[in-house]
Write a structure and sequence with these properties.
Layout lengths: L4 E4 L3 E8 L14 E8 L1 H9 L4 E3 L7 H12 L3 E2 L11 E6 L5 E6 L18 E6 L14 E5 L9 H10 L2 E5 H8 L4 H11 L4 E5 L4 E5 L5 E5 L11 H14 L4 H16 L10 H12 L1
Parallel strand pairs: 1-4, 1-8, 2-6, 4-5, 8-9, 9-10, 10-11
Antiparallel strand pairs: 2-3, 6-7, 11-12, 12-13
Helix pairs in contact: 1-6, 4-5, 6-7
């Protein structure tokens, strides 16, 4: 079924991004070469999908204060609908992202109002919607909305999610997407094809994507072939948000009627595009991605 909307039940936060020559030693200090404050976290997934033309609704929490104001303003620019009122008692959370010269990033996060998990009452989920769930805030609710497809990304904390919380989501989800490190944490296998096969076994009916960084991803469609989908070769400047870009553009590709394999090709290209630009929310618009791909082919 082609998605008609993305209902995002993850968390949008603020990124404080510091570009550093290297990670500081414990107890040490490091002078950043540049700094930026921007909206990140789940915002990157939503922006990636919205820039490809897919309607997006934000079902997560947001706070009262300067960080919440920044998140709401960014959502407004992208045309994303906010479903919940602001939490009057606290502000939105933030993270500090240290970005090294090779583009790798390391985070420290302080949660806030985005961790609100009030369940689904009042959240309009309809037939054809895709509900995106993040490992940063899997819902303790039963059942998950039956009318929608469920797309799950367990995120960097995959190994820390309690089994009684993760297993019901894996049993319900239609798509499971994670990077190679996270797949290894969930399966014990560092080899992405083997990990994808093991992840299929942990789900009841889901298809699986294991993102493999610069090389692209492994796509395991339930009942179909296991495929390595290659990504364009680029020089990475900043990998922050690349996985989020991949997820948002993949879902938008399915909404456009692409097969999972073609949607993965497009998602790989968008992620490659995004890492050539500094910052966390650098997913291209549909027009920019099409032009970039045409230029590379020509």
């Amino acid at each position: 079924m082609r998605p008609r909307r993305l209902v995002f039940a993850g968390q949008a936060i603020v990124d404080i991004v510091l570009r550093v020559p290297a990670l500081p030693e414990r107890g040490g200090d490091m002078i950043a070469t540049s700094a930026e404050i921007t909206t990140g976290g789940g915002f990157n997934v939503m922006a990636a999908a919205a820039r490809q033309g897919l309607p997006v609704l934000y079902a997560g929490g947001h706070g009262t204060g300067p960080w919440g104001d920044l998140v709401r303003a960014a959502l407004g620019v992208e045309g994303i609908t906010i479903l919940r009122p602001a939490d009057p008692g606290r502000d939105t959370g933030f993270d500090v992202a240290l970005v090294e010269p090779d583009g790798e990033r390391t985070f420290a996060t302080h949660p806030g109002a985005e961790t609100l998990n009030g369940g689904w009452p009042g959240t309009p989920v309809a037939q054809g919607d895709v509900v995106y769930l993040s490992g940063y805030g899997l819902p303790r609710i039963s059942p998950l909305p039956s009318a929608a497809q469920v797309f799950v990304d367990p995120g960097p904390l995959a190994a820390q999610i309690p089994a009684d919380l993760l297993d019901p989501v894996l049993a319900r989800c239609d798509w499971l997407s994670c990077n190679q490190r996270e797949a290894g944490l969930l399966t014990g296998s560092a080899e992405p094809v083997a990990a994808a096969r093991l992840l299929l076994g942990r789900t009841d009916h889901a298809s699986v994507i294991v993102r493999t960084g610069a090389s692209g991803c492994v796509l395991a469609v339930r009942g179909g072939e296991m495929t390595r989908v290659l990504a364009p070769v680029v020089e990475a400047v900043d990998t922050t948000g690349a996985g989020d870009t991949h997820a948002g553009v993949f879902i938008a590709g399915l909404a456009d009627g692409l097969s999972p394999a073609r949607a993965a090709v497009r998602a790989n290209a968008a992620a490659a595009f995004s890492v050539t630009r500094p910052g966390p929310a650098t997913s291209p618009t549909r027009a920019a991605l099409d032009a970039w791909l045409a230029e590379r082919r020509g």
